Task: structure prediction
Amino acid sequence: MQRLEYFEDVDIAVEQLRSKDIVKQFEQRFSSSNTANFVTILPLLLESKSNFDRLVESDRFKKIFTVQGFLELYQSKNLSEITNLLITNSQIHQLIKYPIVLDLYFLHKNLLNAQRTKSILLPTEVESEPGENINDGIIIFTVVNEDNITLEELFKIVKNLNELFIKLSNLVGGEISEPEIVLLDSGSDINLGIQDKAETAKSLFHIFKEIWEFFRDRKAYNENKDFDRLMKSLSYRELIKEKLDNGVITSDEAKEYDHYLKTRTEKLIGLNVLPREIVSEEKLQSNRSILIEQNPVKMIENTGNNNQEEE
Result:
């Protein structure tokens, strides 16, 4: 129930802080050629601040605002600075040089992304055996959870999954759309159902499977040359190479995709997140017990990978 209340509170926060309207106003102006009138955002910001001051008195909303970064940004001195910048700058290229203005846009954008995590159950036909839904573009991820997961940790997981799906969807190509993420009813573990294009879902499943199998069997790859050979054989790198060879992406973009997909997947594994089909596999030792008994973060570090992404 606590998780459901959390997402209901996010809906209220989005409405009261006028997040949709503020993001829409920014994006309309960012799409302009050179100049734009940002002053029209101020009435929305004033109403947003007024409602924020009222909601933050509640511990429930204070937790959300702290996690999302609003508690700091919505201090009076910061909003005064933002107000002045919006009034005095009509040149878009000048305004976006100020991090505090971009913070305002991105915090509201992130709050909208949090709202996309629906606190509802997937249809019963999605709750089938692991792996049966992937042809429909659906992956069910399990957050292996022995202790109670905090709302902050859950939001971090959802945020990382959403961003990983979007990045991979961009690489796969075709019509780009944000994935639908829903919270499934669960016991001790938490299940998150994600739906996107079938090709994206299949590609992401294979990324998790290949990287996880390396971590699970890491003793067999205890020399750097083994690690390098495995990393070069990952299937998503074949996709990146294909896009690069066909001129769809540049060399720099290929490196960015390579780094992003690998490190973001590792981060999620470090948060005890795997596709449900992989968690349910039984080898000599179940993958679920490996996640519980061994620290995935240390497993990742032991591969020789020192690249850490920002949360």
About this structure: The first strand starts at residue 117 and ends at 118.
